[in-house]
Amino acid sequence: MGKNYVDIENDRGEVLRYRKHANGRGLIAHGAKVHPTATVELGAYVEPGVRIAEGVYVGRGVWVETDAVIGPDARIAPHAHIGSGAAIGAGAKIGIRANVGTGARVAVGSLIGDDETIRDGEKVATDGRGLRSAA
């Protein structure tokens, strides 16, 4: 039986230990909290201090940086990037290769399309069609 963790050296020469999440085998850093009902696909990275709620889906190749918060039932499509300290509301959908900046806020139920960028600190709410309004 193989080991259930991976050690990775960061840019500062520090070695971080990541465990493989039971649902999807994505890598979860020590200090991150991921609900057991969440799915974190293989190739996704969840950094220290992140909190992922129940029913969340995190696709392949997603990078969730430190201290981000993902609300219940949110969906993060493959290859998206969630910046440090960002917050994704319950039921929000983040598109393929979307980039949510540091400290950004995406409101409950919002739809962020493929390849969209939410700037650092920006607050976004969308309607069901993905049209933005001030949050």
UniProtKB/TrEMBL annotation:
GO terms for molecular function: transferase activity. The keyword Transferase applies. InterPro entries: Hexapep, Trimer_LpxA-like_sf. Keywords: Transferase. This is Transferase. It comes from Microbacterium koreense.
